[in-house]
Q: What sequence folds into this?
């Protein structure tokens, strides 16, 4: 062998090593985590002691906090953190705001490397996954010792943060599935806004009519980003999306899937809804620049804080409950815990974090800044205070009213989403898109979704 | 003459000297060696272990034998889709990228005024090409309501979907972006071109050879070691494609751009399926190793080493 050959061989082997190493180095980090976890009990004790002494002396503490949201949420949350620092000079924050896209990818990477921020805004969708992975801490002790006061929070709602008997998240708000409406587009089309007794066929009719009269999107989303809309639709048929033991799909009739996807397809074919390609571009725009906000679309499904979130860009948004089923077997709506604050297991400032969360939930001055942007506050006292304070805008009053009125239309809340939900959402999205791209019939897609969802559920639960 | 065993003695001196030399060599290698062992070798060993467990990032891993591998080959359709995408990517990308790199290298192997500026310009895509920002720009160009679509519709060609939104063309856009990053191969070709003795071309000129003949009979044979080296490098790189498909299309539409490493990443960090993901990594290592071995086996048939000729 001559030198050139040797060098080439060497370089090549180096490259392939670096490939495997690339996958491997992440595992090395997580192995450290593993060790942390086995020593969990002792570490936790030590930590609690630490924080106790440090707070007694008012030693400077830095809390890392992360959340998802749009620009307006980033702005006021920063204001909120500054306010807290002003009141408690020893506490400073390191804020890590983000958009929804990629938020949970990043979080799981951080969890794996033991670098999860102390306070994490958490969604119902993922809370059981993170809780079962032991990456978020049980906060029950801070409720028991009075650091966090949940006396004014509806106990069903507060318990929605309990996974396998541990309090994995403190619920911040409640919300409901909603159809957000751009009033000016409706006015332009000369169509009356729907009322809460509308049905899915009314919905289809209105979407197409708006497109015919204005050329704008009647409904500006494809209802397959996740399974929330589909879940609502399944519940209207008196069935559940997941079985009680979370090991398989809960609905037995594939016709539900078929009807739902056909509805999406009908809207796209009529150009009343963006096609997958256009929708992809829309999603990249960010919350404040999506069609309903800018006046390029009439309706979209979102959560009950939709109008409040958009208040700064568009004041002309109103809310209506999602369409009813033609022969509704059950109430599809449910009161969803809006979002949670969870504290990471690796956090060294759990007690300080708990104090902040308590302030966030219960203090009037915090809620004067938040102004229900994250959804209807969970504390009944804060709700009363805000309603009477005169500080609420019309939009916010409307949301409070919406939640109160829609409460009558709510059924029993489903259990938290099962482990593996992100894979199921992905599979749902993929099967629906395979129909939209004309690569599968809707019946085949229903079957594919059932098979893959059952496989995922059986593997994870 | 004074020493009774001159040869033996000099041998032992040589030996200690050799040992000392080796020691110095290892000492100088230590920083790299330490990094290699800690950052590559140990994690690799751990990942072999994890690939045989149900590790989900934070649980205590349970040993489950080879069932992850079993699942990959027998039950996982997405694995085959990702494999198909990655093979298509590599098989189209590598020849085009190398041809392009060689062509540009030959153009730049001339003595123009300001040739250095040209060389730098052509190398820039390779530096910035893998970055997020450029991927975003490509998304803007080829995506819905992007430049390409606007031009097409201005010309009266109405497109139903953009190139990136169509499952049949999305991968081609990603490949195109890969070909555009030909700079590092070009640089290697350029330096190899400079090492071809001018005397060969001069004697060819004397014989009246045309430039095509010169290219085929002198340039290409003299470049084969470099082509071989670039080929292996680019194949390995190609199998590792991630950023483009992650940022531009996130694997879509319909998994048509789901690269192998993106799928591996998703398994690990979106689905919390780390054990399985480690197994996927090792399958990829095996595939790349196979490609490399086969290429090394074939090199005696087409790679020309100057030193061999002389000996």
A:
């Amino acid at each position: 062998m001559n030198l050139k050959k040797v060098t080439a061989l060497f370089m090549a082997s180096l490259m392939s090593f670096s490939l495997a190493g690339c996958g491997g180095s992440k595992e090395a980090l997580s192995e450290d985590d593993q060790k942390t976890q086995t020593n969990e009990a002792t570490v936790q004790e030590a930590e609690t002691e630490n924080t106790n002494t440090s707070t007694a002396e008012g030693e400077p503490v830095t809390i890392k906090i992360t959340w998802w949201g749009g620009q307006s949420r980033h702005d006021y949350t920063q204001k909120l953190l500054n306010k807290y620092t002003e009141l408690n000079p020893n506490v400073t924050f390191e804020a890590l705001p983000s958009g929804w896209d990629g938020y949970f990818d990043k979080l799981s990477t951080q969890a794996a490397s033991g670098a999860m921020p102390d306070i994490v805004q958490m969604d119902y969708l993922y809370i059981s996954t993170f809780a079962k992975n032991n990456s978020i801490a049980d906060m029950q002790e801070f409720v028991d010792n009075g650091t966090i006061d949940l006396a004014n929070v509806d106990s069903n709602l507060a318990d929605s943060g309990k996974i396998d008997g541990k309090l994995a998240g403190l619920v911040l708000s409640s919300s409901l599935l909603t159809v957000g409406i751009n009033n000016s587009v409706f006015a332009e089309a000369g169509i009356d806004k729907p009322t809460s007794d509308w049905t899915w066929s009314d919905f289809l009719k209105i979407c197409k009519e708006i497109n015919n009269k204005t050329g704008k999107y009647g409904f500006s989303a494809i209802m397959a980003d996740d399974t929330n809309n589909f879940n609502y639709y399944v519940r209207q048929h008196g069935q559940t999306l997941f079985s009680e033991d979370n090991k398989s799909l809960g609905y037995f009739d594939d016709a539900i899937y078929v009807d739902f996807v056909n509805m999406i397809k009908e809207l796209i074919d009529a150009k009343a809804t963006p096609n997958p390609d256009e929708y992809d571009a829309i999603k990249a725009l960010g919350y404040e620049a999506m069609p309903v906000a800018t006046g390029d679309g009439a309706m979209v499904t979102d959560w009950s804080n939709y109008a409040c979130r958009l208040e700064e860009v568009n004041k002309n948004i109103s809310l209506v409950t999602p369409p009813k089923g033609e022969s509704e077997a059950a109430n599809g709506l449910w009161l969803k815990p809006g979002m949670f604050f969870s504290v990471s297991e690796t956090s060294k400032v759990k007690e300080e974090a708990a104090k902040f969360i308590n302030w966030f939930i219960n203090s009037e001055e915090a809620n004067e800044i938040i102004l229900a942007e994250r959804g209807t506050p969970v504390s009944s006292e804060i709700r009363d205070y805000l309603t009477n304070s005169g500080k609420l805008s019309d939009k916010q009053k409307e949301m409070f009213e919406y939640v109160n009125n829609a409460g009558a239309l709510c059924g029993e809340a489903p259990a938290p989403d099962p482990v593996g939900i992100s894979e199921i959402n992905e599979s749902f999205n993929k099967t629906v898109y395979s129909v939209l791209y004309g690569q599968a019939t809707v019946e085949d897609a229903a079957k594919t979704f059932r098979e893959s969802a059952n496989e995922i559920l059986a593997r994870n639960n | 003459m004074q020493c009774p065993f001159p040869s033996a003695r000099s041998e032992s001196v040589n030996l200690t000297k050799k040992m000392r030399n080796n020691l110095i060599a290892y000492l100088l290698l230590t920083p790299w060696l330490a990094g290699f062992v800690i950052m590559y070798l140990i994690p690799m060993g751990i990942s072999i272990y994890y690939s045989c467990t149900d590790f989900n990032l934070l649980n205590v891993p349970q040993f489950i034998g080879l069932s992850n591998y079993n699942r990959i080959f027998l039950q996982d359709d997405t694995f085959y889709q990702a494999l198909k995408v990655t093979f298509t990517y590599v098989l189209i990308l590598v020849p085009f990228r190398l041809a392009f790199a060689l062509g540009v290298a030959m153009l730049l192997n001339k003595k123009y005024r300001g040739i250095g500026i040209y060389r730098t310009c052509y190398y820039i895509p390779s530096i910035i090409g893998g970055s997020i920002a450029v991927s975003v720009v490509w998304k803007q160009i080829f995506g819905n309501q992007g430049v390409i679509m606007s031009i097409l519709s201005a010309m009266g060609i109405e497109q139903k979907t953009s190139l990136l939104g169509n499952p049949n063309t999305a991968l081609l856009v990603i490949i195109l972006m890969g070909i555009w990053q030909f700079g590092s191969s070009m640089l290697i070709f350029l330096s190899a071109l400079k090492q071809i003795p001018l005397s060969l071309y001069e004697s060819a000129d004397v014989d009246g050879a045309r430039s095509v003949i010169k290219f085929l009979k002198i340039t290409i044979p003299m470049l084969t070691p470099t082509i071989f080296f670039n080929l292996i490098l680019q194949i390995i790189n190609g199998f590792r494609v991630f950023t483009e498909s992650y940022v531009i299309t996130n694997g879509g539409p319909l998994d048509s751009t789901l690269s192998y490493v993106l799928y591996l990443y998703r398994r690990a960090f979106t689905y919390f399926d780390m054990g399985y993901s480690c197994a996927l990594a090792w399958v990829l290592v095996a595939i790349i190793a196979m490609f490399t071995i086969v290429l090394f086996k074939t090199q005696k048939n087409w790679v020309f080493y100057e030193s061999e000729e002389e000996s």
In short: Chain B has a mean pLDDT of 83. Chain B has one domain: 76-310. Chain B touches chain A through 63 residues (CB under 8 Å). Chain B has 14 helices and no strands.
